[in-house]
Design goal:
Helices cover 58% and strands 9% of the residues. The chain is an alpha/beta fold. β1, α1 and β2 form a beta-alpha-beta unit.
Length: 237
């Protein structure tokens, strides 16, 4: 029976230090002697180099310690299926942040089955109750992996939103610098950005030499839109 620990981050820029320290210090150093395997690889797939090495080594009675469920997998379906497979093989899984998901808890739920009584009707109810208990235990594990997958999607969404905001901010600053607008000038859509840039450059009210009808024609927008953009520009929007 061997003791292993598995740590994972998604990119090379991230550090494994916190996970390693958590495992080394947990339960009074009970896992300090573990053999560590580490990946810098996405949790959306199980095909990871070091995890594959560890997986091939595992034997019944071995224990693998994780900082959290998400380190094993961030895919709900794959994670729950792998958990069930390892449990059936007699591999103990320990999750420091979700101890209720440890295979020992799952095993206790299975051991808590109510024994048959010999009464046919009573045993039907007992069998149904035992099945419900195991279904609840399985569902608890599945929920943990579903949460890990949701966190992955949330992170991806935040990254995309951040990149989009950064691009818009860069475009905003570029136009402000080019046309001498006040910082924070509101430029919301591609159409308004282009039109406002033309207005600032060519309108007599700003840096240009053209009258309003000429600028309207140059922008290719309606009079109402043109004057709305002018008001926004004068208000620093």
């Amino acid at each position: 029976m061997k003791l292993y620990a598995y740590v994972r981050v998604s990119t090379r820029q991230q550090s494994l230090k916190r996970q390693i320290e958590n495992i080394m210090s947990a339960d009074g150093g009970a896992y300090a002697g573990a053999t560590f395997f580490s990946d810098r690889f996405t949790g959306s797939t199980l095909d990871r180099p070091e995890w594959n090495r560890l997986y091939k080594r595992l034997q019944p009675g071995d224990t693998v310690v994780f900082d959290s469920v998400s380190r094993l997998s961030r895919d709900a379906e794959d994670g729950a299926a792998l958990y069930e497979e390892l449990y059936q093989r007699g591999i103990d899984l320990v999750f420091l942040n979700e101890p209720h998901c440890n295979t020992e808890c799952y095993r206790q739920a299975a051991a808590a089955s109510i024994p048959a009584t010999g009464n046919e009707i009573a045993d039907i109810y007992i069998e149904a109750t035992n099945r419900v208990l195991m279904l609840l235990a399985r569902r608890q594990i599945a929920i943990a992996f579903e949460q890990a997958e949701k966190e992955r999607h949330d992170i991806q969404t935040r990254v995309r939103d951040g990149m989009r905001a950064a691009k818009l901010e860069a475009a905003q600053h570029g136009i402000e610098k080019t046309y001498g607008l006040a910082p924070g000038t509101k430029l919301t859509t591609r159409k308004s950005v282009a039109a406002k840039a033309v207005i600032v450059k060519h309108s007599k009210d700003f840096n240009g030499t053209l009258d309003d009808p000429e600028v309207i024609k140059l922008c290719g927008i309606s009079r109402n839109t043109y004057y709305r953009y002018k008001r926004q520009l004068k208000a620093g929007q």
